[in-house]
Amino acid sequence: MSEPLNLLIGLAMGLNLLALGSSRLPSLIRAMSLQGVVLGVMPLLMEHDSLNWRVAAVVFATVVGKGLVIPGLLRRAMRAANIEREIEPFIGFVPSLLLGAAGTIAAVALARNLPLLSEHVGTLPVSEPAGTLVLPGAIASIFTGFILLIGRVKAISQVCGYLILENGIYLFGLLLIHSMPLMVESGILLDVTVGVFVIGIIVDRIQRAFDSLDTRKLTTLRE
Amino acid sequence: MMLIPGFILRLAVWLLLAPLLPGIINKVKAWVAGRRGPPVFQLYYDLAKLWRKGVVLSELASPGFIAGPAVAWVALVMAAMLMPLGPAGSAFGFRGDVLLLIYLLALARFCTAWAAMETGSAFEGMGSAREVSYAVLAEAAMIAAMLSLSVQTGSVSLTMMLSPTAGASAALLAAGLFTVLLAENCRVPFDDPNTHLELTMIHEAMILDHSGPPLAAILHGASVKLLLFTLLLVQAVLPMGELSPLAGAGALAAGVLIVTAGVGLVESLLARLAFRHVPLLLTTAFLLCLFALLVAWKGGAK
Predict the structure, then answer these.
(1) Model confidence over A120-132: pLDDT tens digits?
(2) Do B101 and B82 form a contact (C-beta atoms < 8 A)?
(3) What is the helix (H) or strand (E) element at residue B218, kind and residue range?
(4) Closest to B264 in 3D by CA, of B38, B36, B47, B23
């Protein structure tokens, strides 16, 4: 059971690096949404014995939300604001790629030393060492999200960084799928979608007010 | 006494078969483009022609201009002797020969770059600078790949390292090593072997001033290097130790053909990268090999 799970998490880790290395906005958005879908189908694999409609609903909402709605909103905002597709990095692509890889390796190497609650490890076969790739995957995604948030200049790529960070938190939350009410998960998903919706409008406003999406220019706001 | 005929036979196989690979690549490229293309044996004809010609020597060049290509050729052939040939094993494998392989490749690169700068031409210096700066990243990827094979098999001799399959990390390792192969042998996305513009060349720019037998040595050495990297990639991925000798030889030949055709396809379907994007791709190759190392390490620590 943990083999396909680990394969999916490995794929998500690869998508992290792809997001860090991609120099164009559409490919960054594609990597982010694909990662959301990959992580979205994971509850189906974790809940192999008790597949009920609640889990199926979460999976469906996550896949549709992260795979279709959010990237669609971002692409629309991109089109509406008419911004060029090149990403201007604050931290260059090669350094950010190396940082992300270092973070991923550190997460894989050190995740077993983290103090976990019994609720966390309840759903996972901890006896299998390979079964614990969920935690490194979550930490690596969160780290990648941070690098994108810090290291990119344009507002939309920062949003993508935030969404990858949220993917990591979602992966972490999967450990608690039995203990956490469904309400919380769907609430987070709704928040994220609304957040992206609002950002789509704000991006247009920033573009109109400053003629650029460069967030560095926002600090020169006067009067 | 049985060792020496075997050694000569192996040397002959390497020296005679290596120039075939660029011919196959060119055939694949011609086939994709719908042309007839040069014959598969074109490089043999070129080498024979170059060998008969005289050498044009610059007044500025020191003896290193001739010595560089010669040393590079010998280093590459020595590295080829270290590489095991599937069921036949390697000519003289010993514990730690993987380190010697990496250093021989570095020595060959150093000598080519050194000979290139002998004439004091600006283009050669530029080509050498590019070659060496890409090599920094490509060698890191190569060393990471070797480390991951070594961690997986718990051995530091090439024959042992290459006999089992690379396991769970095989796909990562294959992708990484293929990129290293393209970079080390100056194929498209990194360098275009057909380019005629000195400003965009890398390897070709280094050998502009060479002529006659030294140029033949450089070209032949480059084809040996291509065969070396192809064999390394194929044997790292295929479980050579588990096949019978005949099946092993067949799998090896088929693998080499597939990789060569793959290089030809990449060359036909991709454009070369802009120079500023090359470090990103090489870093990706390094990371692929590094993650293969991570998988080997974590998988081994069970």
Answers:
(1) 655 555 444 445 6
(2) yes
(3) helix B212-237
(4) B23
pLDDT, tens only, B251-283: 999 999 999 999 999 999 988 888 888 888 999
pTM for this entry = 0.86
Instruction: Name the residue of chain A whose CA is nearest to B297's CA.
Output: A109
Q: Look at B298 and A129 and tell me if their CB atoms are within 8 Å.
A: yes
Q: Is residue B11 part of a domain?
A: no
Comparing CA positions, the residue from B123, B117, B91, B97 lying closest to residue B197 is B123
How much is the CA Rg of chain A, to the nearest whole Å? 18
What is the distance in angstroms between the Cα of A74 and the nearest Cα belonging to chain B?
Answer: 26
Name every chain A residue with its beta carbon within 8 A of the beta carbon of B287.
17, 97-98, 101
Smallest CA–CA distance, residue A101 to chain B, in Å, is 7
Q: Hey, is the C-beta of B279 within 8 angstroms of any chain A C-beta? A: yes
ipTM: 0.77
Q: Would residue B5 count as lying in a domain? A: no
Task: Verify whether the Cβ–Cβ distance B284 to A93 is below 8 Å.
Answer: no
The total number of structural domains in chain B stands at: 1
**Beta-carbon pairs below 8 A across chains A and B:** 29
- A25 vs A47: CA distance, rounded Å: 35
**Taking a C-beta distance cutoff of 8 angstroms, is the pair B215, B50 a contact?**
yes
- Domain containing residue B227: 21-300
Q: Per residue in B122-146, pLDDT tens?
A: 888 898 999 999 999 999 999 999 9
Where do we find the tokens 């291509």? B226
Chain A residue numbers touching B302 (CB-CB < 8 A): 129-130
